[in-house]
Amino acid sequence: MIEVKNFTKKYGDFTAVDDLSLSIGTGEIFGFIGPNGAGKSTTIRFLATLLRPTSGEGRICGHSVVQDPMAVRRVIGFMPDDFGVYDGMKVWEFLDFFAVAYEIPRVQRKQIIGKVLELLDLTKKRDDYVNGLSKGMKQRLCLAKTLVHDPPVLILDEPASGLDPRARLEMKALLTTLGEMDKTILVSSHILSELADFCTMIGIIERGKMLASGTINEIQRKIQSHRVLKIDIAGEDLDSAAQLLRSNPHVRSVERFDQTLTCEFSGEDSDKSRLLGALIAQGVPVSSFAEQELSLEEVFMMITNGVVS
Amino acid sequence: MLFRDNPVLARELLVNLRANRSFWLQFLYVLGLGTLVFMAWPNSESGGNQISSGAAQSLFDLFFFGQFFLVALVTPAFAAGSISGEKERKTYELLLASPLKPSTILVGKLLSSLTYLILLIISTLPLMILCFLLGGILLSEIVRAYLILILAAGTFGLISVACSSYFRRTSSALVVSYLVILPIALACVAMARTRDAQLRDFVSIAVLPPWCLAIWSLVVVLVGHRLLHPPDVGSEGKEVVDEEEEMKHAIGVVIDRDLFPDKLFAPAKRTDLMPDGTNPVLDKELRSEIFSQGTLMLRLVIQVSMFLSIPLMAVQLFFRPDWAGYYMAYVILFNMLVGPVFSSGSITLERERKTLSLLLTTLLQPGQIVLAKLLAALRVSTALTFLLTEQMLLAYVLVEELRGRFWTLLVFLAILVVTCLMTTSVGLLCSALSRRTSTAMVLTYLSLLVLFAAPVAGGQFLANFTGTTEDQLTALQITSPFAAAFSVPLPQHTEALSYQVEVKTQAVPIIPGTGLPLWAGYLIFNPLLALILFGLTYLCFRWRWWRAAEAV
Ligand SMILES: Nc1ncnc2c1ncn2[C@@H]1O[C@H](COP(=O)(O)OP(=O)(O)O)[C@@H](O)[C@H]1O
Ligand SMILES: [Mg+2]
Predict the structure, then answer these.
(1) Which structural domain, as residue segments, surrounds residue A250?
(2) For the CA of A34, the nearest atom of ligand 1
(3) Low-confidence residues of chain A: pLDDT under 50
(4) What is the residue-averaged pLDDT of chain B?
(5) Do A167 and A19 reside in the same domain of the chain?
(6) Where exactly are the structural domains of chain B?
(7) Cα of A17 to ligand 2 centre, how many Å?
(8) Which of A241, B89, B94, B440 is most buried (CB neighbours < 10 A)?
(9) Measured in angstroms, how far is the CA atom of residue A155 from the centroid of ligand 2?
(10) pLDDT tens, A32-76?
(11) Cβ atoms of residues B488 and B409 within 8 Å
């Protein structure tokens, strides 16, 4: 559905996005994650036909983003990260404006506007001036705008940024609903946990490079090769236990703190049990053997710190 | 702190003067003026190295008035964005929250916007001295001229900075600065042109300095107060304005959307969905608040101009019907100032408001967008300008001499329509070329000056100093509605009108090679020019913004 091949964007000497490729299938919800300035918006604007690439190409529903922008615009709903609204326009007028701009016939427009307002819980605000809406309402209005022509693909740049926690939750619920409507969604954020719950795929970008991308499971598996084991030893002889650990091919490093050995481990589950077996067989008094659970944020930090490549 | 170690001044100077182009601009400026002097230099055959004092005087006048107008036009361009620019960049609150004193900020802003201009002016001093060596001018006159130029730069700069602190948008500040400064400048020029040397001396020594001082202190106090207790921080100017409410309170400027003629420029708001096939951009623009980028002040200024037109009309149309051309010039000037307000923000405002990326990802074609912008701006500008023509209609009905030449009214109106088209087209093109509305606006005013006023003013110079013939001059003036308006033949007024009923007709300038009178040439040539400008705007918009734009 969405395909980017070797997209590079340079501003002068500065490379904002470097040779980025990604592929998103129909119905997927792709979470595009990276710290500020990583190049998310640049990639997204390129996909929304608003940016000329230095090199590379992009396709949405088979239409080239550069060669055939009109066809692409027809199938995408785009929400920029930073947008404004017109002065002196009411909410329904704003939606009508875009509905006309998307060439929707009048007979359908009334119904569509009603439905979209309903979906985004804006029905009560129908007759309010758009520039008087709160930030959260504006974000929702913009989302409503992206839906008026019922596009199969939604491209949303940080839809939840700048919102209070409650509005954030509501936005999350909305995106989940949209995902259930079988739309292909590309949504960006600099907060991983915001997306992890409902995304089917995740791509992590930093300094213009895609560090990791794939389904949640694939990413998790990648993470799994970088597990952290915590082993508590009951006896005094930690050195020989550490020695034993180091000799295992899956163990990268071992650190010792008090009665605990912490080691980085890159094996499968079976390797893990074999390691435990070896420790017991050597008579090491293991009192606890556990894998440290990494939160999504820690994973994100690990990846963006270059721990995982 | 005011001058030394003023961080505002230091930062802005650094940014301004670091640019290479400021050096080149200065070079070109001196080069251009030098060429003028060279052209006007007496050739040795006709009279040695002394020129007649008349020629020296007119060269001096050219320098002085040329630079005076440069100051009047360029100062707002530099200074009107000084504080509103901080608001637009959202650094205003940072600046105010710093421990800088309002006076430091004000002086920093003023000096940094003026330094370059003053450098430009001073760099022409050697040329002026050269003219002095030719004789015919007093040294004291030169000194006075430069003092007045610098005084004017300071005063105009302060007025612009004051506007800048009062408005949220640079474009509003710019227009209002121009509307305030240009009348002052014109009055000054009128004063300086008087033959009465004593009056001139009196004014320049006893009247100007105290007035300037008064303006300076007033502005410093008011702006200082505004910077210390800013009433305009916080909501970023985004508070909801209920237009209907506001219009009720805008005394004297009540716009009633349901009544003629207001319907022309502010059609009723929609109560239902647009019909199929509507150009949504056009519909939105037509129905949006017409002064959305301006403010009460701008409305007031427009209203005042319209009010002024009544006595002007009374004098020029009823007492001296042959001066109808001057009344037309007033109306054209009005359009020249007000027209760009509505067109030069057309495209840049979409960027500044951050709605361009929304607009560009719809199915709207670039032609649709550009055409809608043109028509909407044209409509407002034409409707406002034609409000000033009511008086002309009246005069043509009441004054007998004019009634006899009714067709000239049609010519005048046609000239106005074409002028509106030109101001709007130029504004739109500049808007497509620029990144910011204020840049677009300055660019528009400068282009209009070159098209409209320069042929008339420059013609005078060319005729005096070079061998340009009358015919060539006429051909040069084809883009100027002022020249066109004055070329319409009107019954000549003779001193002894009461008993000597003699209706002469002035000679009409003919465009060489065509046999067309100048006004007809204007009416034919400029719509074509507008069409070309529109085509350029379309291409520019298409390539710059619509087709995968850069950094919307
Ligand atoms: N028009 C531009 N000119 C120069 N640099 C730019 C431009 N737009 C973006 N950048 C740079 O490109 C990088 C990526 O920006 P962006 O894609 O907006 O990041 P984000 O991931 O936060 O959305 C940033 O370092 C930014 O400074
Ligand atoms: Mg971004």
Answers:
(1) 225-293
(2) 21
(3) 308-309
(4) 78
(5) yes
(6) 7-40+53-228, 243-479+519-551
(7) 12
(8) B440
(9) 13
(10) 988 888 999 999 999 998 888 999 999 999 999 988 888 999 999
(11) no
Q: What is the pLDDT of residues A219-249, one digit of tens each?
A: 766 666 677 888 888 877 788 888 888 888 8
Q: Do B547 and A69 touch (CB under 8 A)?
A: yes
Q: What chain B residue is nearest to A71 in terms of C-alpha separation? A: B363
- Select from A93, A105, A129 the Cβ nearest to the Cβ of B240: A129
Q: Which of A169, A187, A214 is the last residue of a domain?
A: A214
**Closest ligand (CA of A17):** 1
- Residue B550 has a CB neighbour count (10 Å cut-off) of 11
What are the backbone dihedrals phi and psi of residue A31, each rounded to the nearest 5 degrees, phi first?
A: -95, 125
User: One-letter amino acid identity for B211?
Assistant: W
The enclosing domain of A208 has a CATH number of 3.40.50.300
Any idea which residue has 């069409």 for tokens?
B531
Q: Could you tell me which chain A residue has the CA closest to the CA of B272?
A: A93
Give the distance (Å) from ligand 2 centre to CA of residue A36.
7
Cα A80 to ligand 1 centre (Å):
14
Strand A153-156 with A55-60, pairing: unpaired
Q: Within a domain: residue A271?
A: yes
pTM for the model stands at 0.78
Kindly state whether residues A52 and A182 are assigned to the same domain.
yes
Rounded distance between C-alpha atoms, residue B532 and residue B520, angstroms: 19
Residue A229 shares a structural domain with residue A210:
no
Does residue B261 carry a pLDDT above 80?
no
Which residue, B87, B102, B279, B278, is CA-closest to B171?
A: B87
Contacts of B280 in chain A (CB under 8 A): 96-98, 100-101
Same-domain check for residues A128 and A198: yes
Name the residue with the closest Cα to ligand 1, atom 8: B551
Q: Tell whether B357 is within 8 A of chain A (Cβ).
A: yes
Distance from CA of A250 to the nearest CA of B (A): 47
Q: Whose CA is nearest to atom 1 of ligand 1?
A: B551
Minimal Cα–Cα distance from B347 to chain A, Å? 13
- How far apart are the C-alpha atoms of B164 and A47, rounded to whole Å? 39
For residue B261, whether the previous peptide bond is cis, meaning omega lies within 30 degrees of 0, is yes
- Which among B243, B359, B548 has CB closest to A69? B548
Prediction ipTM score: 0.77
How many domains does chain A contain in total? 2
Q: Kindly list the residues from chain B whose CB atom is less than 8 angstroms away from the CB atom of residue A97.
A: 274, 280, 283-284
Interatomic CA distance for residues B489 and B496, integer angstroms = 20
Considering the domain architecture, whether residues A208 and A243 belong to the same structural domain is answered as no
Output the ligand 1 site: residues, CB below 6 A.
A 11, 14, 16, 34, 36-42; B 551
Rounded Cα distance between B361 and A45, Å, is 10
Q: Which H or E run contains B138?
A: none
* Whether B268 contacts B251, CB under 8 Å: no
In a domain, A172, yes or no: yes
Domain stops at, among A186, A214, A242: A214
Rounded to whole angstroms, how far apart are CA atoms A240 and A246?
Answer: 10
- The whole-angstrom distance between A90's CA and the closest CA on chain B is 10
What's the distance, Cα to Cα, between the start and end of chain B in Å? 40
Together in a domain, A139 and A258? no
> A245 and A170 in one domain?
no
- Specify if A308 maps to a domain: no
Q: Which of A87, A94, A131 to mutate against chain B (most B CBs within 10 Å)?
A: A87
Residue A305 belongs to a domain: no
Please report, for the domain that includes residue A243, its CATH number.
3.30.70.980
A66 plus A192 within the same structural domain: yes
